Amino acid sequence: MNTIRTIRQVRRFALHYGEMVAAMLIGMAVLWPVWMLATGAADDGSWLRSASVEALVMATTMALPMAGWMRVRGHRWAPIAEMCAAMYAGFAVALPLHWTGVLDAGGLMLVGHVAMFVLMLAAMAWRWEEYAGCHRTAAMMAS
Asked: Which of 26, 43, 97, 135 would staple 73 via disulfide (CB 3.0–4.6 Å)?
């Protein structure tokens, strides 16, 4: 493999990661306030305001736009599902730690988010060709 091709692939890979992170941050900025508005009448002790529910809602506010952006970029459903699973996996590990008192609510969010970005990177590395190559489908290239 020549150096120019490798550099191009690394740039595409990094750009794709950045695009997904941007979509996630936009989704969080737009959808999290909607959740807060929708649950604004709930008491602080309500299950809707529990750290467990809010962690999963936070992951969802980030996963939905990221999945949408991946689809726009021409990815198949399997890699999209894998990437969404990677986004929730850190919370799946952190939630039992929260329930047993090892992590407080802030720790739950911190561990879940850090794991999210690391696991997304791992999922991308697993499918290097998917993320380092061209993302457009044949139909998108024809238009």
From this structure: 135
